[in-house]
Specification:
The complex is a heterodimer of chains A (about 110) and B (about 110). Chain A is an all-beta fold. Chain A is built from no helices and eleven strands. Chain A has strands at about 5, 10-15, 20-25, 30-35, 45-50, 55, 65-70, 75-80, 90-95, 105, 110. In chain A, strands 2, 4, 5, 6, 9, 10 and 11 form a seven-stranded mixed β-sheet that branches. Chain A starts with a strand and ends with a strand. With about 110 residues, chain B is mainly beta. Chain B contains no helices and eleven strands. In chain B, the strands form two sheets. In chain B, strands 2, 4, 5, 9, 10 and 11 form a six-stranded mixed β-sheet that branches. In chain B, β4 and β5 (about 45-50) form a beta hairpin. The radius of gyration of chain B is 13 Å and the shape is globular. Classes of the chains: A mainly beta (about 110), B mainly beta (about 110). The interface of A and B includes residues 33, 102 and 107 of A.
Chain lengths: ~110, ~110
């Protein structure tokens, strides 16, 4: 069964540094999402992306965050000037159509020290 | 906005049935989902139900939907130790975002 692939599986960074989290969507999927799960808390929506632009973003997704799909395959989440509270699991999800289920990757655990 | 609630913890014995419950607030949800998360792992789509159905069965899994009460449940028959995980209910809100519940930790005792 096709999978959503995320890299790296674990990223450790120092406060203030920039990180880029990568996602390879399922090949025929058109809608892309990033979600975040702080340890022990709910899975929270960050941003949705369709047709090479952001469809919707949450309050969490401020100017520190950006997304892009630079080469038509990888879907990336960039976090600038990381803070301790950015430590979380970041999940990429992709969707074939707007009435299809979301398929999630295994996540990237980001640890900011 | 959409609010999705679940009980936090359920403990069952191996071989028993498990029932995990979920309530939601937005009646416009067209699809309702159950995801499973094993420790340190990603979110695995288990099953989903369309809002015009009231029941869906898939092997050991049965999903029941009561739209009037905005209540969704997941029944796992013959629960195994490998079913131990966190189970998330998730619904599509009015802006087509997937909103997750708080998650229910299922502990299966041998």
């Amino acid at each position: 069964e096709p999978e959503v692939t995320q890299t790296p599986s674990h990223q450790v960074t120092q406060m203030g540094q920039e990180v880029i989290l990568r996602c390879v969507p399922i090949s025929n999927h058109l809608y892309f999402y990033w979600y975040r799960q702080i340890l022990g808390q709910k899975v929270e929506f960050l941003v949705s992306f369709y047709n090479n632009e952001i469809s919707e973003k949450s309050e969490i997704f401020d100017d520190q965050f950006s997304v892009e799909r630079p080469d038509g395959s990888n879907f990336t989440l960039k976090i600038r000037s990381t803070k301790l509270e950015d430590s979380a699991m970041y999940f990429c999800a992709t969707q074939a159509g707007d009435n299809s289920p979301l398929h999630f990757g295994n996540g990237t655990r980001l640890t900011v020290t | 906005g959409e609010d999705v609630e679940q009980s936090l913890f359920l403990s069952v014995r191996e071989g028993d049935s498990s029932v995990i419950n979920c309530t939601y607030t937005d009646s416009s949800s067209t699809y309702l989902y159950w995801y499973k998360q094993e420790p340190g792992a990603g979110l695995q789509l288990l099953t989903y139900i369309f809002s015009n159905m009231d029941m869906k069965q898939d092997q050991r899994l049965t999903v029941l939907l009561n739209k009037k009460d905005k209540h969704l449940s997941l029944r796992i028959a013959d629960t195994q130790t490998g079913d131990s995980a966190i189970y998330f209910c998730a619904v599509i809100d009015a802006t087509n975002k997937l909103i997750f519940g708080t998650g229910t930790l299922l502990a299966v005792q041998p």
